[in-house]
Design brief:
By secondary structure, the chain is mostly helical.
Length: 491
């Protein structure tokens, strides 16, 4: 039986793409010589085509970041306008993570059955509805409902976007393009912080609609993931999609054969749907353990608690213009993540993770010491201002070092190392773990800071130190290897 016949037979019962692109990207093929060269010149260049696709789906992570940053500049106004307590607002802040957990559970299966583009379309709709619910909220019920809906969309986006980017990118650009996911998250955070200085919280919620509103039509102009199409047995669409992503004049035969070989191997090993029991095999449990471990440790460093309530933390540190400092923190995070995008395919994933987690540990140690000392000082003490400055410098250094590795790379590695035939199940588990820990950190951050700022940052320091050990012992280097080579290495 030929590969095509086998693929068609195994994929007969599988779903078709929810969102068809049409055949626009076949216009520049060698068979379409009647089309003027100038009309397809932009999409003939493989790097231009892949970058444009990445920038379109990056609107999803911008929505992700905007959701995360929204609670920081709006906390005092929402509490005042709706009469909420600190605990009730903490629930509001953390509900996006609860919704994201539900989205994470569903994300793998949604993207598996209707495609990467279709799942992004599905994710955009609850995001838009959620922001509208928040903007019109008269009490906590609409506020909570909107936050849950946003969270569901963000949970699907957080899995689908890095997977889509990894599956369309050539191996020499995969790290940089994969880092665009986290770069977009930081841009969304910074926009929420910045606009929150000038815009009322209801209007800021309306602004939150824009990324997904632009994303929806953009999805009609990009090809579906070629690896997903190959897995579904849609070989003509698979080759057409890969051709536009690599350039219409590029020879894709080697990559086509490699992807076909991987899909065939996966089909031969699997006669039924993947079950949890299948994950006991080393070629599955090891990459899953690495993916889950990195995504858990990313959140246990305390990053979401710090970013969600940055203004409150800066006030506790004695910074007068806490909202302005928060905007500055967001801008620094964008710059640092941009540096990671440039470095990741040069320095490698492991080195950046080790440097990042080491820097985070030292930075958090300084912050915790500064808060411990400040707790025993009065405001007129000569050491009060230096301790405030030390805590501010430590927080900035933490965000910079986080952004240099732990912020972006766990999502890149997760999308690279999971075998294609368990990616939906394993990816959902890894993403769920990330959002579960994010919820725990976000829900507890305000309460822990009220208990002891120094104690809170000491806990975060310990988790960052453990990250160093985890990376050194278990995280493999994936730089410069195709997805198929990475998957074969675990067998």
């Amino acid at each position: 039986m030929s590969f095509r016949e086998e693929s068609e037979e195994s994929g007969r019962d599988l779903r078709k793409p929810f969102l068809h692109t049409g055949s626009w990207y076949r216009m520049g093929s060698r068979q379409s010589s009647m089309i003027e060269k100038s009309s397809t010149q932009v999409i003939r260049d493989s790097s231009v085509s892949v970058v444009l696709c990445t920038l379109i789906v990056a609107l999803g992570p911008i929505q992700f970041g905007f959701t995360g940053g929204y609670s920081s500049p709006t906390q005092s106004d929402i509490i005042s306008d709706l009469g909420l307590s600190i605990s009730e607002f903490s629930v509001f802040g953390s509900l996006s993570n609860v919704g994201a957990m539900v989205g994470a559970i569903a994300s793998g299966q949604i993207s598996e059955y209707i495609g990467r583009k279709g799942s992004l379309m599905i994710a955009s709709i609850p995001n838009i509805i959620g922001w509208l619910a928040i903007s019109f909220a008269k009490d906590s019920s609409f506020l909570y409902m909107g936050r849950l809906l946003e969270g569901f969309g963000v949970g699907v986006i957080s899995y689908t976007v890095p997977v889509y980017i990894a599956e369309i990118a050539p191996q020499n650009m995969r790290g940089a393009l994969g880092s665009v996911n986290q770069l977009s998250v930081t841009i969304g955070l910074m926009l929420a912080y910045l606009l929150g200085l000038f815009v009322h919280w209801r209007m800021l919620a309306v602004v939150g609609i824009l990324p997904c509103t632009i994303l929806i039509p953009g999805l009609f102009f990009i090809p579906e993931s070629p690896r997903w199409l190959a897995k579904m047995g849609m070989m003509e669409d698979f080759e057409a999609s890969l051709q536009v992503l690599r350039g219409f004049d590029a020879d894709i035969s080697l990559e086509v054969n490699e992807i076909k070989r991987t899909v065939t191997s996966s089909s031969n090993r699997r006669t039924t749907a993947i079950r949890f029991s299948d994950l006991k095999q080393r070629r599955y449990w090891f990459p899953l353990m690495v993916g889950i471990g990195l995504l858990l440790l990313q959140q246990l460093s305390g990053i979401n608690g710090i970013l969600f309530y940055a203004s409150t933390i800066f006030k506790a540190a004695g910074i007068q213009s806490s909202n302005v400092a928060t905007v500055g923190l967001g801008a620094i995070q964008v710059i640092a993540t941009g540096v990671t995008t440039w470095l990741i395919d040069k320095a490698g994933r492991r080195l950046l993770l080790i440097v990042s987690s080491s820097g985070m540990t030292v930075s958090l140690l300084f912050v915790s010491v500064a808060f411990y000392i400040k707790a025993s000082l009065t405001e007129d003490s000569r050491f009060y201002v230096p301790m405030s400055i030390l805590s501010l410098v430590g927080l900035v250094a933490f965000v910079v070092t986080f952004s240099l590795g732990i912020g972006a790379i766990p999502w890149v590695i997760m999308s690279e190392i999971l075998p294609v035939n368990i990616k939906s199940l394993a990816g959902s588990i890894a993403t769920l773990g990330n959002w579960l820990s994010a919820w725990a950190i976000t829900m507890s951050a305000n309460l822990l800071l009220s208990w002891s700022s120094g104690g809170t940052f000491t806990l975060y320091t310990v988790m960052s130190a453990f990250t160093i050990v985890f990376v050194v012992l278990w995280v493999p280097e994936t730089k410069g290897r195709t997805l198929e080579e990475i998957q074969w290495s675990f067998r």
